Amino acid sequence: MRSIRSIFFSDVHLGCRYTHADALLQFLRGHEPEHLYLVGDILDGWRLKRGWYWTDTYTYLLRHIVGLMKRGTRVYYTPGNHDEFLRYYLHDLGSIQIADELVHVTADGRRLLVMHGDQFDTAVRHAPWLAHLGDTGYNLLLGLNVVFNGVRRRLGMDYWSLSAAVKRRVKQATNFISNFETLITQHAADRDCTGVVCGHIHTPRISRRGGIDYYNTGDWVESCTALVEYYDGTLELLHRPWHGPTERRSRWFPGEGRQRGELANVREVLESGGHNPATVAGGPGSNRELTPIPQG
């Protein structure tokens, strides 16, 4: 397997009974990236506030991320609406850099805006009660998903996402996703970036809008996908089936899996002054490096 320079993942929702944190943990155990981006909604404060739910797997996952930090991986966190309480801790939480927006410089020199994306969800921003109502409905769909696919397994049938099918068939949901992609790519262009990495809508995808590359990392409740960057600047969505042993290229997006730049040598970027590929977008001290993590 090709060595991975950077990993981006979002929407794990620790605290939700239906998260596949175990699949994410197995995925991360197979890689030692230089840069690890937690692109929001890693913790589900909404669910935890309604009723505490925590498993040993969640603890093992967080410990593994700390272990990566101790071995030299730089970790960045851009909070989402479900873990927005972390926005009180901008810009740093120990050795983790926290910001609403970060800029990642790829191995081939491209600037990618990294943010969760809830800022472009009108329900979250202007009608929180509606967002919470939608979250409750989504949780009910996930519960039905478990029962529905339990029956399918007994019949020897493959997994089929009920909630994803509802999103695809409801016109308003389709329009919302399209509008979300348009708004966030326009924002990336305003930030002088050539692409944007986000989460929030639980719809993994690589596409291009208005000349701006759009990367959605997906989630670890249903799609179990992460965005990875290789050492030549190539970006790819990987799918880790929660019921399977290894990850593979996402099978849902033929022809959308890769974006390649012109330079192939990460050393050229590092020697040109881009020692820290992540900076706070538009903020003060944007060229400040993270404190290296002591080995041990």
Protein described:
- This protein has a single domain (4-121, 159-280), classed as 4-Layer Sandwich (Purple Acid Phosphatase, chain A, domain 2).
- By secondary structure, the chain is α/β, with parallel strands linked by helices.
- The chain has eight helices and 14 strands.
- It is 32% helix and 20% strand.
- The strands form two sheets. The protein has an eight-stranded mixed sheet with strand order 4-5-3-2-1-11-12-13, covered by helices on one side.
- Strand 9 and strand 10 form a beta hairpin.
- Mean pLDDT is 77; it is low at 251-275 and 283-296.
- It has helices at residues 21-29, 45-50, 56-70, 122-126, 128-154, 162-169, 171-190, 266-271; strands spanning 4-9, 35-38, 74-77, 91-93, 96-98, 102-105, 111-114, 195-198, 205-209, 212-216, 225-230, 235-239, 248-249, 278-280.
- Helix 1 runs parallel beside helix 3 (56-70).
- The protein is globular, with a radius of gyration of 18 Å.
- Going by CATH, the architecture would be 4-Layer Sandwich
Query: Domains counted in the coordinates: how many?
Result: 1
Instruction: State the CATH superfamily name.
Output: Metallo-dependent phosphatases
SSE order, as H and E? EHEHHEEEEEHHHHEEEEEEHE
| Largest sheet composition | 8 strands, mixed
> How many beta strands in the DSSP annotation?
14
Average the pLDDT over all residues and give the rounded result.
77
CATH C-level category: Alpha Beta
Structure class: alpha/beta
- Output the CATH topology: Purple Acid Phosphatase, chain A, domain 2
Q: What is the overall silhouette? A: globular
Question: Number of helical runs?
Answer: 8
Strand content: 15-25%
Specify the helix fraction band.
Answer: 25-40%
| Rg calc | 18 Å
Trace the largest sheet across and list its strands.
4-5-3-2-1-11-12-13
Return residue spans where pLDDT drops below 50 for at least 5 consecutive residues: 251-275, 283-296
